[in-house]
Amino acid sequence: MTSSTAQTRPSSSLSIISINDPSLINEPTLINDPTLIPPPPSPTEIRFMTALASDTTRPSVAIITLNTSLFKHDSLSKDQNHFSSWKRQFIQTLRMNQGADGYLDGRILPPNRDSEPRAYSNWNANNGSILGFMGLVIDDAEQEVIDGATTAQIAWDLLVQRHAQEGPVKQVQLIQEALNVRYSSSEKYSTTSSKLTTLNKRIWDMGSLSSELFLCIIMINSMSNVPELRATRENVAQQFAQSDGTNPDLKKNPTARKFRFESYGYSFIDPDLPKFEFSSPKVHCPWMS
What is the spatial distance between Cα 259 and Cα 212, in angstroms, rounded to a whole number? Predict the structure, then answer.
């Protein structure tokens, strides 16, 4: 007959340790070592965890599917001198695509890659779409300008810088056009004022003319009444309009095309005198002697 003690004995052996066991006195516990208690998360860590959690379901940047059919302008070309109208329509097209024009001026910045991986991925996808769209509506020469751009903002800044001075000849033509505008009873005064405002903005957006540059331009324009110089004038004027002037800032815009008179056989005889000579063919303008 077994005793009651034997009947209640557990089937497996258990080790009962006394809290006064000398072998555990030096072991760190939550009681004798409070440093084992993890500190509460910092505000930065809380924001990070919150952003990471919301990024999964509600990313701060959503994917944009561009509707490019809204764009109805010819491809951008420096030869056409139509950057102002192209720029206006490009911005309007992106603006109607969930405000995607914010990628051009830096209003929509890339999210943190670690705390918002999904939003960051969406931002890069949108940036790539805008860059691709931009490349489709500009000609080959313009594509070379933005070829190395990694963001839509960088590419946009390069185009704006390139076309800030569409060509000094074109600038003088706009000045002439503005001076020929007249108020008339056949047109609303507000319409005429709007034309003048637009022309004025385009003129000054091209930059300031130096006295030397302006002299070159009026000399070119003055050739129009000389039959034997007409072809020369048209050639120089075309090359001049397609260039970035006689002294572009190559540090800011390494791809700028500098106009060199000597490249086309033209050079100043004396910078202090209004003289201009043609070395090929060799012609000296008598009215400039």
Answer: 13
First to last CA, the chain: 143
Alpha carbon separation from 70 to 67, 136, 238 (Å, rounded): 6, 14, 32
Dihedrals phi, psi of 161, to nearest 5 degrees: -65, -40
Q: 153 near 160, Cβ under 8 Å? A: no
- Amino acid identity of residue 245, one-letter, is G
Q: Which alpha helices (DSSP H) does the chain contain, by range?
A: 4-7, 43-57, 83-95, 102-105, 117-136, 140-146, 152-163, 168-179, 189-205, 211-222, 227-242
The CA distance from 266 to 275, in Å, is 11
For 236-285, write each residue's pLDDT tens digit: 766 666 566 556 666 766 666 665 554 444 443 334 433 444 333 333 33
Contact yes or no for 234/212 (Cβ under 8 A):
no
Q: What span, in angstroms and rounded, lies between the C-alpha atoms of 220 and 276?
A: 10
Integer Cα distance of 143 and 132 in angstroms: 10
CA distances from 87 to 139, 170, 179, 214, 243 (A): 14, 17, 25, 27, 20
Which amino acid does the sequence have at 280? S
CB atoms closer than 10 angstroms to residue 11? 4
User: Which long-range CB contacts under 8 A does 149-154 form with residues at least 24 apart?
Assistant: 151/103, 151/127, 152/103, 152/104, 152/127, 153/103, 153/104, 153/105, 153/106
Give residue-wise pLDDT tens across range 177-189: 888 899 999 999 9
Q: Is the dihedral of CA 170, 174, 179, 182 positive or negative?
A: positive
Give 33's DSSP letter. -
